[in-house]
C-alpha cells in the first residue's frame, strides 16, 4: 500500500502561464510514453519478477513515477492557472476547456485518452526488463522534444530533472537485466519460468 | 508524492487457486469500474476542487484505491499461483496465458485493456463529486456480482471488505457534495468557478 | 419502436456560421458527455429497471436525448454551412474536412470517435440511476463551458434550452432514485435483485 | 425528433432461454455490423445527401434500425431471462454477468464496446451510399451466421425477418445510388459537391 | 511472401515543405480510409475468396496499397523535411513533434492511432467485395478533399495518381463482384459457403 | 514498393485442425506483440534512422515480418479448415464465426482488434532500436507460450522457426544499436538529431 506525503518529489515552478505548452506537456501525464504509462507498467510487472531485488526495483521506480505523474499534473495546473476560455481557444486547446474546464485529463497531446494498449507485460523477466528499458528511452526522447519546445528556464529545469531520472531508471533496469540473466544462467533448474523451446517437449 | 509501505491494506487469503474466478475478478483490476478507474479518477480530479478538505478527500480515497488495486493484484496472483497453461485453457482464459504468462494485465473480464474513456473529469466540483458517487455505486455492484460468483469463504471475506470500503467512500463523497453545495450557496462571489448560465452573458 | 416526426424538438438558429465553434460543440454530438452518450445509456438500461415507471422514464428521456442529438447535428450543419476547406483549416479543423467533408461524425472536440466505454450499465437500478444523475451533471457542465465559448446569442439560447433539459432530467432521475429506494425498502422479498452481501452465503 | 411507440416492429419470441446464444447475438446489438452501427451510420449521413428523397431514405432506414436494435435487445433479455450467475459462467459469459448483471451492454460477441470507428461518413453521396450497401451486406452475412448457430425455430424466424429487412435496405440503397448518379450526371453544375479532380485546379 | 524493391511505385515530388498539409495527408497513411486500411483489408480477406482469380486480385491490390502507403510516407517525410519544432507548432501539429519527432506514425489527421475497427471481413465473398468497393470510394473521396487543400502542383499530381488508382480498383472489385455472383448462380452446389437461410434448417 | 512472390517463407503444416489453438495463435496475427505489430513498427521507423544500413535493416526485417504474418494467416486457415459453427462454439470462439465466418481478422486471442497504440516511433534512433529489441523479446515470449499450448509437432516446428527468427532479429537490432551509438559518439556534429539537453539552451 502507499502513504501519501503532501509534497512534490521536486519543486515545480514556472515563469508564466503558457496554455500552448500545457497542451503539449500533458502527453507526459496521459500519453503513450508518459508517467502514467511508466508507473502502471512497472507496478503491474513486479509480481512476475523471479526474486525480491527485482520486485523491489519495479516497486520503487513504479512509485517514483507516480510522483513524477503528480509533478506533471502540478505543472499543467500552473501553466493553465487563471486561463480563460479564450486562452485555451488561442492555444488550439479549446476542446480541453469544453470537456474538462481547468481540470486535467489522462490524454496525450492530441486528446487521445490513455489506454493500457500502450504498455506490456509478458510475465517473462528478461522481456519485461527490456520493455522497461525501451519505455525509459521513449520517455527520455519525449522530454527532449518538450525541452526544445519551451523557452521558460524554470520549466526546462524541471523537465531536465525528470529527463535525468529516466536516464537513471534506464541504467537501473539495465543492471537488473544483467542480474536476472546471470541468475538464470546459474540457477535455471530452480526457476519455474520458461526454458528454451528446444527442451520443452521432453518434459511437458 | 507517495511512499510505498510493504504491506497490503487488508490481508488477501484464498482457500485454493481458481483460475476461472481470477478471469472474472480481474475486472476490478483493469475493468471499467475497477480500482484503477477509481484511483485515477480521484487523483486526477483533486486539483479542481474548490477547497482543501475536498482536495484532501480525493487524495485520501485515490490513494486508498491504489491499495485496493494492489489487493486485487495479490488476489489474482494467488488464484493463479502454480497454474499451468492447461488450467488457463480449461478456464477459458488461454489468451491471458499466451499474452501475459502468469503475469497480470490491466483488462476487464473480457480482456479489454483499460481506457481512460471509462472515467471523467469536468472540472466542476458538483459534477465530479456526483460522478464519484456513481463510480462507487458501480464498484459496489461489481463486488456484489463477484461475491455471488465465488464459493471460497476467504475470497468472499476479502471482497466484502472492499465492498464495505466502497459504501463508505460513497457516503464520504455524498457528505462532501453537501459541503461543496453549502459553500457555493454562501460564498459564490469568492469562487471563480461556473455561475448559472443566465448570469454569464452580462460579464463576458 | 420509434416514429420519426419531421421537426426539431426546439428550433435551431444561428446568427452566422462559425466553424471554430462547430469544432467545439460537436462534443455534444459524439463526445463522452454528449447527447449520443445520454441516449444510448438510458435506452440500454431501461430493461433492468424493476418497475414500469422507471422503465418509462428511461425510455422517455432516452428518446428525448435522440431529439437533442438531432438538434446538435442541425446546429453543427448550420455553423458549417457554406464553409470552404480554407475555413475549416483556419478553424484548426482541417482534418474534419479531409475525413468527412461537410458531413458530421460522432466525435468529441478532438476528433476521438465515440465509444461505448463512455457509458455504463450495471443492471442494478440504484447504481444505474446514480450513473444517470452523474451523466446529466456532466452534460450540464459541458453546456456551461460551451455557452462561455460562443458570443452568438441565438446559439446561447439554444444551448441554454438544452442545459435546462439536463437540469430537469437530473431532477427526474433523482426522484426516481428515491422511488426505487423506497420500493426496495418495502418490497425487498418480492424483488429478485441483489441482496446485501451479508445475507448471501446462507442461501447459495 | 422521434416519438416512441410502445411496441416492437415485429414480435420477439423464443422457445427457451439460451445464454450461450445471447452471447453471440449481442453482436447485432453493439458489434461492428449490428443495428446500432446501422442506425447511427444512416442518421448521421442524411444531412449531406443532395436532395430530399435521399435524406428521407436515410432517416427512414436509420429509424427502422433503431427498432431493430430494440428487437435485438428484447431478444437478448428473453434469452437471459431468469439466468443465474452459473448459467452465464457455463456459457462462457461470466464477464457479462460480473460487469452488467442481467443488463445489456453495447458490445460485440467478444465484449468489445461499440466504437464509431466501425462506421464512416465521407460527406460524398456516392461514397456514403456504397458504404451503406456494404453495411447491409455485412449485417446480412452476420444474420446468416447467427441463423446457423441457433436451433430455436422462433429465434430463427425473427432473425430471418431482420435478414430480409437488410436485403430490402440493400436494394433501396442501390436504387438511391442510381438516382443520385443520374442526378449528378444531369445537374452537376447546380450541385456544390465535388467535381472530378482534373477540373479543380483551374478554379481554386 | 513479399520482396522489397527499392523504388517507389510512382515518384513523390513536392515544391516546398508544408507541415500543415502533412498533418492532413497523414490520414491516408494511418487514418480510417487510408492506404494501411486498404492493404490490411484486402490481404486479410483473400483466403476466404472462393476461387483463385479472386484471391489473386485481393493479393495484387493489397500489395499495391502497401506501395501507396510507402508513397504517402515518403510524401509526409518530404513535406516535413527540415521542419523545426516551431514549424510543427505553427501548423497546429506540435503534438506530433513531441510524440514522434520528425518520424511518422499511423494516425489520422487528428492523431487517432489506426485501429482494425476501421475494416471488416465477413468471410462472405459478396459482402467482402462490396465492402472493398466502399473502401475504394472512401479513399477516393478523401483524396478529392486533400487535392482541394493543397496548392502545390507536384503534390496534386501525385495525389491524382493515387486517386486514379482507387477508381481503377473500384472497377476491378466491381467486375470481380459480378464474376463471383455469376459463379455462385452457376455452381452453388459445389461451393461450401452460405446458402440462402430458407434452405438452412433442413440440413443442420 | 513490394513484389508478391507466391510462396510462404517457410512451409506451414499441421497434423490436424484445432480451432481452440487457432483462437490462441491469432494473437501473433493481430495481437499486441504479433507479426503485424512488428512489421508496421519497423516499416514506419525506417525513415528516421540516421544512415542507410539502419534504414535497410528496418526495411528487411519489416518485410520479413510481413511474410511471418502471412505464415500465421496460413496456419490459422489450416487450423480452422472445414470447421463448422459448432466447432467454433466448442472452442469458445463462436463470436469469431459469427463475426468473420471462416475468415480471419486482426485481433488478439480475446478478439480485441489491432491498434497502433501497441507500437511506437519516437524518431530517435537509439530509442526506436531499443523499442524494437523489446518488441522482439515480446514476440519471442509469446511464441514460447504458444509452443507450450499445442501438442502438434508440425505446429511446434513452425512456431520454433518463427521463434528463432525473433531471436535473430533481436541480435541484429542489438548490433545496429551499437553501430548507431558508435556513430553518434564519433560524428555527432554532422548529425542533426537530438543533442544532450544540457547543450540545448545555448543554441535555441
UniProtKB/TrEMBL annotation, chains A, B, C, D, E, F:
InterPro entries: Ferritin-like, Ferritin-like_SF, Mn_catalase, Mn_catalase_dom. Keywords: Calcium, Manganese, Metal-binding. Ca(2+) binds at residue 60. The lineage of its organism: Bacteria, Bacillati, Bacillota, Negativicutes, Acetonemataceae. Belongs to the manganese catalase family. Binds 2 manganese ions per subunit. This is Catalase. One of its GO terms (molecular function) is metal ion binding. Pfam families: Mn_catalase. Mn(2+) binds at residues 35, 65, 68, 136, 169.
Amino acid at each position: 500500500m502507499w502513504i501519501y506525503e503532501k509534497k512534490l518529489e521536486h519543486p515545480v515552478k514556472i515563469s508564466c502561464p503558457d496554455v500552448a505548452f500545457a497542451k503539449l506537456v500533458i502527453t507526459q501525464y496521459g500519453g503513450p510514453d508518459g508517467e502514467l504509462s511508466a508507473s502502471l507498467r512497472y507496478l503491474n510487472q513486479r509480481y512476475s519478477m523471479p526474486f525480491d531485488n527485482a520486485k523491489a526495483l519495479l516497486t520503487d521506480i513504479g512509485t517514483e513515477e507516480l510522483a513524477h505523474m503528480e509533478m506533471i499534473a502540478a505543472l499543467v495546473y500552473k501553466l493553465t492557472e487563471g486561463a480563460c476560455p479564450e486562452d485555451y481557444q488561442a492555444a488550439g486547446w479549446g476542446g480541453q476547456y469544453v470537456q474538462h474546464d481547468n481540470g486535467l485529463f489522462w490524454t496525450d497531446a492530441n486528446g487521445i485518452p490513455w489506454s493500457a494498449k500502450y504498455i506490456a507485460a509478458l510475465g517473462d523477466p528478461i522481456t519485461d526488463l527490456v520493455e522497461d528499458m525501451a519505455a525509459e528511452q521513449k520517455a527520455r526522447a519525449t522530454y527532449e522534444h518538450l525541452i526544445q519546445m519551451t523557452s521558460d528556464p524554470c520549466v526546462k529545469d524541471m523537465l531536465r530533472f525528470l529527463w535525468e531520472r529516466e536516464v537513471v531508471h534506464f541504467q537501473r533496469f539495465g543492471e537488473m537485466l544483467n542480474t536476472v540473466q546471470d541468475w538464470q544462467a546459474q540457477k535455471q533448474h530452480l526457476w519455474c519460468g520458461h526454458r528454451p523451446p528446444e527442451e520443452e517437449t521432453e518434459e511437458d
